[in-house]
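USER:
Working in pairs, take the chain set out below, taking as long as you need, and write a paragraph about the fold.
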Amino acid sequence: MLTAAVDPVVTLPMESEFAGPVGPCGKTNESDCEGAVPLIETAAVVPVVTLLVLDLYPERRGMASSLQSFIGSLANAIVAGAISPLVMHSAVALAAASICMMGIGLVAWMHMRRHWPAVGNEIPTA
């Protein structure tokens, strides 16, 4: 979440076209290779969310896992197929879209934390 908040602020003053030789990460220069940090953050969050979803329906773990995977894939498809083409023409539009999606995610998380069952809040004693 930190990079989602910082990247747009850093990106806004650097409005430019990406032209020139492609670097090792597929971008035009090394400073554009900062996409690994959000991937690491996502890799750290996904297992936790998966366990929370699986604990909601312990008798139907396969269904819960499949549904969570489907919703994640659907969200990625919407972002890649609908949102990205609309905003990829400028760094300002990308930054604004990033801020909007971060806000939507934050509001959704706060709503779910308020209405989430007490699953996973207690440590079972044996």
Residues 17-24 have pLDDT under 50 and may be disordered. The chain has one domain: 2-15+22-115. Residues 76 and 83 are 10 Å apart (CA to CA).
